[in-house]
Amino acid sequence: MLSGERKEGGSPRFGKLHLPVGLWINSPRKQLAKLGRRWPSAASVKSSSSDTGSRSSEPLPPPPPHVELRRVGAVKAAGGASGSRAKRISQLFRGSGTGATGSGGAGGSGPTLWRPQKNRSRAASGGAALASPGPGSGSGPSTGSGGKERSENLSLRRSVSELSLQGRRRRQQERRQQALSMAPGAADAPIGPADPGDFDQLTQCLIQAPSNRPYFLLLQGYQDAQDFVVYVMTREQHVFGRGGNASTRGGSPAPYVDTFLNSPDILPRHCTVRAGPESPAMERSEALAAYLDGREPVLRFRPREEEALLGEIVRAAAAGTGDLPPLGPATLLALCVQHSARELELGHLPRLLGRLARLIKEAVWEKIKEIGDRQPENHPEGVPEVPLTPEAVSVELRPLMLWMANTTELLSFVQEKVLEMEKEADQEDPQLCNDLELCDEAMALLDEVIMCTFQQSVYYLTKTLYSTLPALLDSNPFTAGAELPGPGAELEAMPPGLKPTLGVFQAALELTSQCELHPDLVSQTFGYLFFFSNASLLNSLMERGQGRPFYQWSRAVQIRTNLDLVLDWLQGAGLGDIATEFFRKLSMAVNLLCVPRTSLLKASWSSLRTDHPTLTPAQLHHLLSHYQLGPGHGPPPAWDPLPTERDAVDTGDIFESFSSHPPLILPLGSSRLRLTGPVTDDALHRELRRLRRLLWDLEQQELPANHRHGPPVATSP
User: Fold this and answer.
1) pTM for the complete prediction?
2) 660, 687, 705 — which closes off a domain?
3) Is residue 105 part of a domain?
4) What is the tens place of the pLDDT at every residue in 270-299?
5) Residues 6 or more apart from 236 whose CB is under 8 A from it?
6) Whole-angstrom Cα distance, residue 352 to residue 179?
7) Cβ neighbours around 465 below 10 Å, total
């Protein structure tokens, strides 16, 4: 009977049972027999060419594999009174052969529901000779001329069969013991004769879901004896419904159903699941080409390709040979982090972050070493040190500034993803605690990279400034025929003595702008430069007043003018507020020296302390005690410190400490990386396409040579 035929009652009937590829049943017996009765109306899975109520109107294709999996539950005998009871999958496996009769007929005394279709030899109980299962075969002595020959043949057959059966029984017993050892308490239980119920139970427990076919998984059944755990779908269109009588009240045939469910709230034809049409090869090729050449900010990779991908991104960024936008490396690395957080397992993100942070740190350390080799701190004896020009320092610091900008944005993005992971995961999960620790270690490495690049950047900038700052104290802005520039003047219009210092500030400003450094870090970078300039100029001012007459009104006016020109230029560059704050102490010291002599002689110590609060008592006393009042004139008694401040004057330091610089505070808030919408930058799009093709090549290298093929033809960007 064809597997597509259908009998009354709506239950499908099969000629043979076939297990689909990917479905493995670890049963003690692997022999399958043909089904002699229909399958149950509950949870059978089969293949058909139609889902309509009548299937006789259209031709049927060859029957595909069918399987019926039963949930672990009560086991009922196959030979029960109810004719609708189904054969369970455990009943498809024959017994161990211990129940066969000796000299009787082929059928024996057992039930005939699973009679083999071909005659076979059976072993007689008690070591009797094997007999042919056909009529007339028996166990008595043979007669006739061929009796001896038959006796020898039977002896040979008996010996071979007995050896085969003994080995088979031994293997069955070993498999049974191995299977029973997985059950709770089975290790201490005595091993007795094989029980078909045990095999039935073990068969159902050892079933695995198919890996190459879709299936429904039953979460909570209605009847344990008839419900199944897994319902495999083998057709492109699969119908679920409730089984019933052969016809409805109106006499029309019952609707066709692939899989029967027993719950009363299931409709006769409850739902239909259809598989989407498989895309043809041309469409798949077009879809692949659309991904490889697309402008969507997506970068898909497998875990085994992660190391090569991250290494290529960091290597290209460190080389700086391409024309990527300033934050291009951070954008590409953020795409990797985003793919890991969305598509890969939860524990993959911490490992990716750790590897990413280590790669960035190694690249930055290598770049710092290269700059240090070109700009050594200690020059050979007899070789004069050549100061860095603003142009040279800009070229040297550009790689470090780029890494500082990219790492800052990447750190902000990583912090957002880690917070999302912490909110979505179970707080009591011990694995989550371990993952968060790994993420913290990775973010600490990124913090270290930012701190180090910031430190190296301001070090070389201040090293360049150190050789240009003395001109602010020595140069005269009132040269013959020179006109002082107004606010917002260009650098070329500034006095010659101020151009080197302002040139360093301009180079630093252009560098931070070109690298798209975070605004908070830009402010802190210039804050440190202004702090260094203020401390260096103030210490030089204090030092010059000790040995020679320097604190004069005319000299103070020149210094004040130079300082005002610098502050006006910085105000035009958008740095006026920061400069005013950090140059406050130098400005106050110069303002004291700019006070007219007659007015200064009338002032007292208390009034001067009130008018110049940023100066320490030791610094104020040093400026007043070395002020040039004229030949034969010393400081007036009114300038003497108060008795309460005498100790501060005697023990205080007149020089500024460079160690009291403001601390670096990393920016807070969301990342500035743009990971939504199409990629508008052509250079970033080209790099994204290159990385996608790199991943494609890595995937193709894993395939056999005859299965490899190149990527689709790329379209022009």
Assistant:
1) 0.63
2) 660
3) no
4) 888 888 776 666 666 777 778 888 899 999
5) 274, 275
6) 41
7) 23
